[in-house]
C-alpha cells in the first residue's frame, strides 16, 4: 500500500492523499506538479520517473491512513 506522503519534498506544498496533483517515483519520493515539471519528471533522489500518484478516497483514511510524516527539509 502506498504511504501517501503529505507534502512535496522539494517545496513543502501540502499534498492531501484525496487530491490530485502529486507525483511519485517507484520509491514514493513525492513532489507537487510544479516541482515535478521543474525536475523534468525525473526524481532527484533516485533518477526514476515521476508519475501521477493515485488518490485515496477520504472515506478510507480511517482504515488506511495516509502518512503524516513530512519529508520537506527546509
From TrEMBL:
<protein>
    <submittedName>
        <fullName>Uncharacterized protein</fullName>
    </submittedName>
</protein>
<dbReference type="Pfam" id="PF06906">
    <property type="entry name" value="DUF1272"/>
</dbReference>
<dbReference type="InterPro" id="IPR010696">
    <property type="entry name" value="DUF1272"/>
</dbReference>
Amino acid at each position: 500500500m502506498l504511504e501517501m506522503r503529505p507534502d512535496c519534498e522539494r517545496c513543502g506544498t501540502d499534498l492531501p492523499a484525496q487530491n490530485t496533483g502529486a507525483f511519485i517515483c517507484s520509491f514514493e519520493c513525492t513532489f507537487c506538479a510544479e516541482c515535478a515539471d521543474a525536475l523534468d519528471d525525473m526524481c532527484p533522489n533516485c533518477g526514476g520517473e515521476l508519475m501521477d500518484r493515485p488518490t485515496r478516497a477520504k472515506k478510507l483514511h480511517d482504515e488506511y491512513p495516509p502518512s503524516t510524516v513530512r519529508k520537506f527539509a527546509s
